[in-house]
Amino acid sequence: MRKPFWLFALLALFIASCARQASPAPEDNRSPQEILFEDGNYAMFIHFGLYSSLEGVWKGKIYYGNAEWIMNPAEAGIPVDEYMAQAASFNPSEFDADEIVSIAKDAGMKYIIITAKHHEGFAMFDTEASDFDIVDATPLKRDLMAELAESCHREGLGIGFYYSQFQDWTAPGGGNGPEKDASGRTVSFDEYFRTKCVPQVEELTTKYGDIQLIWFDTPGNMSLEYSQELVDIVRKNQPHALVSSRVGNGLGDYETLGDMEVPVANHEGRWEGIDVTQVGWGYSRYDNEWKTPDFIVRTLVSTIARGGTWMLNVGPDSKGRIHPMAAAALRKSGKWVHSHPEAVYGAGPSPWGHALPWGDAVTQGDKVELVVFDWPSDGNLWIPGLRTPVKSARLLGKKLRFSSGESWTCVKLPSVRPEEYASVIELTLDGELKVDGTLAADPSKTTVLPVEFASVEKCEVRRSGWMEKFGEWKTRNVAQGLNEESSVTWTVEIKFPGVYNIDLEYLGLVPEGWVEWRMSIDGQEAVVNEHDATRAYAWYPLGWAKIDTPGIHTFSLRATDGDIPSARVAAMRLTPIAL
After folding, report:
1. pTM score, two decimals?
2. Number of continuous H segments (helices) and E segments (strands) in the chain
3. Which of 490, 558, 564 is nearest to 527 (CA)?
4. 258-314: per-residue pLDDT in tens?
5. Domains contained in the chain, CATH given
6. Max Cα separation, the chain?
7. 122 exposed, middle or buried (CB, 10 Å; 0-12, 13-18, 19+)?
8. How many degrees, rounded to 5, is the angle at CA 102 between CA 397 and CA 91?
9. What are 435's strand-pairing partners?
């Protein structure tokens, strides 16, 4: 007897249901705070304190750089009593927690971390441990941490607090603060820790509902016991809240890299990068070097591609307002973030382990998201080292043509980029993702090759850091300690034979110094040139070299004359020359 069609359909549904029950989705045992940190990948940092009332100016003098350090002897050196007196006129009455949360949400940020107490010792919340706070010492008399926490909870954002646990420039016994109290009695750090630091951390972890994390900063010379006690307080009161590595002594749930640092190579473990919308962290009325939407998109994606999460700072002014320029840049870049959630939320690091000449890459499940910052002029997007066949490539949902060879895949793009800042090409692969991360020179555009990926002999690659304005940190990994026997060698895959221009990025520490450079390719001397060496990193042309065969080549650099010990090499770049 012929069975009715509906019976087969019912049987198919039953089998499918059993299959789903037999293969449940893997359980996610992470806490909500861990999920928000690891998958949200983007947060707002806020530096706001009594220093905001000065806006980078003291007694008519402008102090460039980090406005939150204006009290410190490294800047204006304001006496403790004079600085504390500023609280009587600090009235940030236009602080609007809902507006700040709105900006963060429009930007695509998933949580907010705000300075509850910075190094100056002034508490931006109602604390029983000190009268030097926003409620007791100012005409405002509002607990701004409570207002922001309430708004974040209501709008679905995480909230966390920055707390300077060691430094306190106004509390007796605090790190780098006064040694004696008003009566002339010497106060120990332990007394400060017990009477101010510990009670305030208790308050921050009990008064404001569930929190995302406590962002401790500058542990100074605190012992392990002090750091551990702070971690224990957080664990007791907020079992799932994260603790930043800057609590000190190797503790913390994740690593915070250096200020304004994006690694060149993928960085292992759970970590965050931090940066600013101005030059400094606290607001300065003369700091108008705003980060563009393009910078924000690129740095966010690059941080995620290296395996981290990113926190971008805003500094409210003396009235408590976020500057319109910062808000506009955040909202404009946020439109891109909301349009490309696959490149941000839950995205994994680049399988290449480093940026690519035209942009970067992240993973999303079994797909690869290619984020193209610099649109190739010839429409060819060259992808090196992808060992897994590509099933499809899509841009804004539309299929793109592509071709694959042994070492290279080429995706054909429209002649004009369809979006601002960046476009995302989604690759669906036919099999398990496998990538050869060997450095490769793009066939149609300039490729920068950082020294981190070079091998060195008789010199070393070390981290170099410096400040261009006070607190404006710049860092590079550079080859230094050079002599005439030193060499720096990059191994690079070349797709097409031809002529390539070679440039070198370096500096010199000798005024009016100079260096002679020699570059060999596969052991044969290719270019020789001499250039001045300035005290700032700059690009210098070495010359053109002809490469006759495709495949793997070595580029070996030596310094052979001049002020060699002063030179620090940061990168080489290759540019194909069309002849």
Report:
1. 0.94
2. 10, 30
3. 558
4. 999 999 999 999 999 999 999 999 999 999 999 999 999 999 999 999 999 999 999
5. 41-343 (3.20.20.80), 359-437 (2.60.40.1180), 447-577 (2.60.120.260)
6. 104
7. buried
8. 155
9. 386
